[in-house]
Every structure is written in structure tokens, then in C-alpha cells.
Amino acid sequence: MEMQGSDRRQTQAETNRTQVAERNLSRIGLISALSRVPDNLTSWSRDIETVPFGSVRATCSSAGGHTVPHGLDSDVLFGITNAFQIAGCPADNTIRISTAELITLSNLTKSGRLYQQLQTSLDRLLHSTYFLYETWCDAQGNAMRTLSMSLLREVSSVDKQAPTRPDTRYSATTQLKIVLDPVLANSIRDSYLNELNPALYRELSKPMTRILYRLLSEYHLNNEHSTLTLEVHQLSQLLGFPTNYKAARIQRDLSPAHDELLATGYLKEVTYTGRGKTCRVHYAFNDAANISSSTYATMLTSRGVSEGAAMSLLISYSEEDIIQACQRFDELETRGYAIKNRGGLLNDLIQHPHKYAVRTIESEQSTPKKSRPAKSEPDRLLPETPPAEPSVEDRQRTYANLLSKRVHAVFTAEEENNIRAFYLAGTLNTFAVQQLCSAKNPQQALQHILVSDTEA
């Protein structure tokens, strides 16, 4: 069945949504990458010294008969941290979100079975306690000496259909209230985050691949080298493999994840040297595939697109669309095309590439015409005027699709009306509204705007 227009736009928006990973979670490996663990595995302890990642000294214990977090739990926690960041990092460390929204933010596919897996996963995350020794870092890179933390402090649910249902299982209509541990919440609030390539991340099909990708991306974040070497047994511990796994077993279990990362182009090569306890894995990164959405935003803003418009374009269009439009824009500029509105032209190149079909002199000469002297001139484009500014209807759609939920989560109804009016009038752009929602004191920031508008 052919995908309808709204479904196609939703899929594209999900593909390009910014994905961020809390850096400690990526580096320490608090959640095992294994999809299954023994029912009696309720604790673990590890003491790992790695050159690129530093010391990892941690223990985990689970209560209430739950196993330690593993597999899908990492994706669910990833969705929670992204939901917290999108909500503007509320001061009470609490997010309110539907099960369907959380599944989407976790990059999982909705199904009846998955709702029950989500419930089990949240139970494991809630009932696990970690003790960390000089391992958890703050945004300045300083390691906390000792730390006891949970990942979640509270999980509660409400379902409008509950009176007609005989059980308490999650469904698509379940609304969740999730309270993050203050240590984790503060790390996200302080932006100790690694921005991932959203299109690449969405291609990864297995929890283990996504965990390995976040681990490798953490190393690659501030490292100028395009290679990484790790002892295989150290990597297996960071991924939560049993300590009795031999090198050959580890290589075999990692093979599907490596294949995916090679297929997406994130990695150029994976090789091994040595045997047994001396076995090492060598990663060669394909830097061209590791561009984050912030880089694409810079590509747009450096060519005259406003920050707000850039964010909207990144949500609505693929990286390939952005790259092709920027390349075409640069070609036009080099050829001497008269550009009256740089940002407007690039915006239109992205949204309406078909309007800019090139008619070269060679193609014109293929059609019989009266002879005329040859000229040397830039390629002629069909549109001769820059695109118009967004209409009120366009702004209304953008506000409804992109901003309304986030504004509603932070402001009162009266404040929402003021923000919406400013946005529709063009006083605030998309970027400004998102910055307003993320401000440390959103109400004070909004009041400043209201006072400035009154004085004007």
C-alpha cells in the first residue's frame, strides 16, 4: 500500500529528529548489550582500565526479583533522556509522555508485544542501583569520587481505558510519568551530550548495534584520529558480556553489529590482531558518515538561512536533500547567478528542487532553432525572483506540528497564547521559541520579550 503524504512526512521527521546520547551512559556501559541474560543475573561488578575511555569501576544490583538492565532497556533509556531534553529539562526531573511517544523516541517499532516489553524494561530500570567510583563525569570532565544512583526514581502510569480493562498492562493509550535520577537529569541539563547522526542511527536495527555505535561515537567525539584500538576483553566488559566469554565467542557475537556499522558507512573497516587474552579489535572510522545534524545546520546558516528556518528544514528534509541543495547553491554562486536573497534561494532549492532545472546552451542547441551567436553565460534557472516569506498559514502549520507540544509542557495557557501570537506575527522564529522553552527560567525570558514588545 502506498504511503500517504502525512505518513511520509512523519517518517521523514522521525528520521531527521535530533538524537542525543548522555555521554556517561555511552562510555560506562551501565546496560548490557545482550538481548537476553540469565534469570538469576541480578548483579554485576566491573573494574576496567581503557586508554581511550579511562577507568570504569562500577557495580549494579537489582531488587524485586528483576534481572540487571539489558538489551532493549538501553533503547528505552535513550528515549527517556531524549524526551527529557526535548521537554526542556524540567526542574522537577519529571517527564509526562505516552507509551507510543516513548517508543518512537526510543527508535522502536510500535506493536502490541512491545508495550509489554516497555513495561518490563521500565521496571528493570527503576529497580536497579549503581555504585560508581571515580567513573561518572560532569560536564567539565571532572569525575565524581563516589556515587550511588538509580537511573529512574519513579515510574507511574494512567490509562483512560483502565475502567474497561481487567489488567494493568500498558497499551497505546497509557500515559507515563517518569522521574529521572537527579544525577542523570543534571548531566542532561548541563548538556553533557553527544549529538548523533539521526539518519544513520535510525538505520541500526539491533540494541547491541546501537549501544556499540554510541560507545564508539563517544570516543570519536573529541578525537582527531580516525582509528581506535581496544582489547577485545575490555570491550566485551563495557558491553556487558559474561567474563568467561573467550575472544572467538566475543568476535562472533559482535559480528552482526559490525556488519551493520560497516553497511551504513559509519565504519570503514574492522580488523582483529592477536589471540586469546591478547586479542585486539581495530576500528577505522569513515568520517564522511559521522556528520551530526548541527553540522548540517551550519551548512544552512552559513548560506544565509536563519537558525529557525534551518531547524525546521532539518526536521522536514533528509541530509541528502540538504547536501544536494547546498551543492547546487554553491554552483550557482560560483557561476555568477544574481542572488537577491541567499537564505530564501537555498530554502527554495531544498523545498522545490524541480523549479531549478538547468537549461544549458548545449541542451538548447539540441532543439532546432534559428542560428544565433554563441554566448558564454551562467546557466539560466526557471525562477528569477526569490521565494516569498512564509505565510501565516505556513507558520500556523509549523507551530502546530513542531512547537505546540513543547510550549504546552512549559508555559501556562495565557503564556502559550502570547508565544503563538508572536510566532504567527513573525516576531519569534522557530529557533527562538525552542530556546525560550529550554531557558533556565522560561517565564522570566518570556516576560523580557513581552516588556521589550510593549516598549517598542
TrEMBL record:
Q: Highest lineage ranks of the organism?
A: Bacteria, Thermotogati, Deinococcota, Deinococci, Deinococcales
What protein name does the entry list? Uncharacterized protein
Q: Where is this region: Disordered?
A: 359-394
**To which species is this protein native?**
Deinococcus proteolyticus (strain ATCC 35074 / DSM 20540 / JCM 6276 / NBRC 101906 / NCIMB 13154 / VKM Ac-1939 / CCM 2703 / MRP)
Alphabetically sorted, this entry's keywords are: Plasmid
